[in-house]
Specification:
RNA-binding; RNA-binding_domain; single chain; YhbY-like_sf; Translation Initiation Factor IF3; about 20% strand; RNA-binding_YhbY
């Protein structure tokens, strides 16, 4: 689990990122989780936006994605979810 200090650090790093995945009408599926997992391995930190036509609640989507990818849920702000997962191959972020 991340500490409050680590979450603040990750939020500041994520602030400038653009969402690279969108969850729409179909909701969360295995293929999406697989792709997000691969992206997390490369980037460690990423944003996912939940579109208005998504049938699921954004908090449910956040929990499904974080548990499916075994990633840390940094924050849900508006319709944007920030996820973090320490990379095994390309570690870039040094947590405080």
């Amino acid at each position: 689990m991340l500490t409050g200090k680590q979450k603040r650090f990750l939020r500041s790093k994520a602030h400038h990122l653009n969402p690279i995945f969108q969850v729409g009408k179909g909701g969360v599926n295995d293929n999406m989780i697989k792709q997000i997992n691969e992206a997390l391995e490369v980037r460690e930190l990423l944003k996912v936006s939940v579109l208005q036509n998504c049938d699921e609640d954004k908090d449910e989507v956040a929990v499904k994605l974080s548990s499916g990818c075994k990633a840390e849920l940094v924050q849900v702000i508006g319709s944007t979810i920030v996820l973090y997962k320490e990379s095994e191959e390309n570690k870039q972020l040094q947590l405080p």
